[in-house]
Structures are given as C-alpha cells and as structure tokens.
Amino acid sequence: MNNNTRRTFLKGVGVTATALGIGGNIVLAEETDGTETDDPPAGWSLYRGTNGRTGATRMGGPTDAGNLDVIEWTNPDGSIGEPVVADDTVYLAVRESDGPGATAGFVAAYDLQTGTEKWKQTTPAPHTPTVGTDRVYFLTSAPESPDPDDGGVFALDIETGEVAWTRTDYVTYGQPVWTQPILADEGLLTTNVSTGSAYALDPATGDTVWKTGGVEGDVAYADGTVYTTDGTAVDASDGSKKWSVEGSIEMVADGSAYGTTEGTVHSWSVGDGASQWSTSIEGEFGQFALGDEQLLVVTEEENTHRATALDATSGKERWSVEPLSALSGLSVGDGIVYVGGRRAVDDGTDEAVVLAIDPASGEPTWSLRLPARTEQTDNFDGLTATTPVAVDGSLLVSSSPHDVDPFWYESDGYTRDEILYRITADESPADDDASGGDETDDEDSNGNESNGDESDADDSTDGSEDTDEETENDRCN
C-alpha cells in the first residue's frame, strides 16, 4: 500500500493523527544521533516524537482508572497541528481558517506549566514543528493559494520567534511540496514532491547540503540513514541510495524498518532491506507506534476501526480490538497504549473519547469523554479526540470537530475550533459523598468512565460502527 492510501484513511477519520510533546528532560531533535534503542527517548520534540517516528516516550501518563481531571490548557481559535514540547515550552502550529486557499496561521511558544504565550509568529498554514536547540523548523502549505511563498520550509529563532530563513523554491500555488523535516547530525532531512528528491539542508541557513533524485515521501531516520515512505533508504551523510523495497517505510527502530504494502505489514532489515517478516491485516492503514516489543497499528475497513498489536520480532498478532467508533491515532507512554478517537451517541453526533489500553491484553483500563463546546460542534457532526501523548504523569490531547458541511466548506471556508486539554490524575482524597458512596457510576462529572462489573460499562468501549460519510478535508499534521 502506498502512502496516499494511508493519508486517505487519516482524512476519513476526520483528523490527521496527532501527537503532543513533553517538558522536563527533553531530548531535542538536534542533539540526538538518531540511534534507536530498546527504550524510547524521554521527550517529544517533533512529529511522532522520535526521529524514527515511533510514537513512543518513556514518560508515563495516568495509569489509574480513578479520578481524572480534565484541564483546558489552551484554545488558540483554530486547527492545532501536533504540538511538541522542549524545555517546558510548548510549540503549536495553528491554522486560523481551513478550506480552499486558506492561509491564515501562526506558530507560537507557550509556557508548559502556565500556558502563558512567550512569542507568536504569523506564518501561512503551518504544520507540526521540529524543535532544535536554536531553531524551530516546520513546513507550510496552502493548497489553491495563488502565492507560491505560502508553501515552503521555515526556520524561526527559538528564543524570539523571528524568521531565521525560508525555502519556498519548487512551490506552486502553496502546495505542500516539502515534507516534515527531521533534524540530525547530517542536517535537516526532508524530501520535495516537486523535484522528486531527498534533501539535507543546512539547519543554520536552509542551503542545500546534498540532493538525491528519485526519492519521495515522508522521512524517518536512524543511525545515519534516511528512510522514506516510497521504500528507499538513503545515506544521510551524502545522499547516496543504500537500498529500496516495494512498500512504504513508516517507522524505524532497533535495527528494523516497519511499513506496509497493500493489506500487509512488513519488517525489513535496516542493513540491506531484507524481509524479516510480513503479516496480512485487512483494511486501510492509519497510525503506527512502537510498544514494549510490539508494533501497534490502526486500521479501518468498512467503517470499523481497529487497533492491532503485532510481535515486533515475529509479526505474530498479539491482540486486535475495536475500542471506539473511530480511531484518530495512538501513542505509547512508559509502555501504556493511549488511544484517541470518537464514539457515536444516541442523538446521531459523536463524542471525543480518550482510552488507556493494557499493552498485554489490549483491554481498555479506563476511558474518558472530553468536554463538548457549542462553538466546536456548529456545522460539524461532533468531536473526535486526537492522539494523546504522555506528559509527566498526564496526557495532552485535543478535541477536534469533524464532518464539516461540504457546502459551507466550499463556499466560505471554516474555522475548526480545537481545544488542547491536559488530563491529570487527581491525587486528592476521594469524597464519598461527592462520588455517591459505594455506588459505581458509569460516568462521573468529569467524563470518567468505569470499566467495572456493571452491565453498562462495556458501552464505553463497544466499538460501535460509525456509518456517517466523511468529507475529505485537509488539516495540518
């Protein structure tokens, strides 16, 4: 299966899979050597958290199904790209309007603890940043915009947000011709759709260090090698091609490159691309993540969304579940699997739900419904939760409206009002009176849902099908 099929699935979910960042002992993208070990890094400073795009962090999230607090961390009045965090600073890429030709947007830095804005830089339609020690790098795209400068690669000063340099060459009508960059010792690594080439750019200036033709797709990186979703492995030091496979390389870790062909998940050796195993899975592929010696993948087939765990060494299926009506993505925090998505409710709309899943069995250990705001659901069919990511014992996750009215989209454009939440464990003593004494409710005032013995408990993770038709509208990663 090619990368376009995977992107179609993500649009059908209604949000592009997102992942957030963490503060504390962050491992910055520029300061790593790209080596993937058995343990993921303790940070999340670029899309999918690591240079190998593994969607995993050593930081843990809430593990107890008890009291959970949902804190509205920020509401930036737009579509939130995947937030990343470095040194207790959150970097958000926000589109203030969506739809054909929409360009309004900004990248901003916020204090992780207080949400206070540090700086804000207006940019055309930004995507998820990659954070280094001195710069914040990201691509922009504004399809149907008449200004070619609306699409390109941007670098901002990490302290002030001032523009350090831009690359808007090879861009036509604001299309997203560059792919999300990775920062490594060899440079800022990316590809360009217009030229069909892989690039290493100088992180300080944006100048081309090397360029290799015949290479396309999104990039991952490990141990001095760039891997792309067109199945190519490229030497990051000089751009020379090492090997290629028939398939899409989605993720790299621990000596293996993981990816897909139509209906099949593969593991290839990073040394020569030799096949290590392949496993058939029905449906279109969504997001991947790496758990404790297992590969996790989201799939969709005929409106049924599944999360499947495969043994990372053999490819043997460990478990496969349908926890929600639709899944937007998943991540791993200190071994625990976290899933974001939506669940259909009786009035025909959808509610945004976050799940924690036992990595050994695939069974949900807790679920939580995010708050719904009227301004989020006008002209939409409901909400979906984006990919949750562990942050120092808590989770960061956004609620996103989905199913925009197609006539409204085509005529006026629209604003997708997303809200970023932080889910924390309430460590205060339980109040028996407030909680109803010894009785166990299916859902408390915060939206926490029990997985206890009551017959109704299974409703929180019943995997009921979502049959609504989705409008394939783009939003930034």
Description of the structure:
By secondary structure, this protein is mainly β. It has a single domain, classed as 8 Propeller (Methanol Dehydrogenase, Chain A). The chain has four helices and 36 strands. The chain has helices spanning 3-13, 374-377, 406-412, 432-435; strands at residues 56-57, 68-74, 79-80, 84-86, 89-95, 105-111, 117-122, 130-131, 135-140, 152-157, 163-167, 182-184, 187-192, 197-201, 208-213, 219-222, 225-228, 232-235, 241-244, 248-253, 256-261, 264-269, 275-280, 284-290, 294-301, 304-311, 317-321, 326-333, 336-344, 350-357, 364-369, 382-385, 389-391, 394-402, 419-425, 448-449. Strands 1-28-29-30-31-36 form a six-stranded mixed beta sheet, with no helix packed on it. Strands 2, 32, 33, 34 and 35 form a five-stranded antiparallel beta sheet that branches. The radius of gyration is 21 Å and the shape is globular. The model is unreliable at 1-28, 30-38, 404-413, 430-446 and 450-476 (pLDDT under 50).
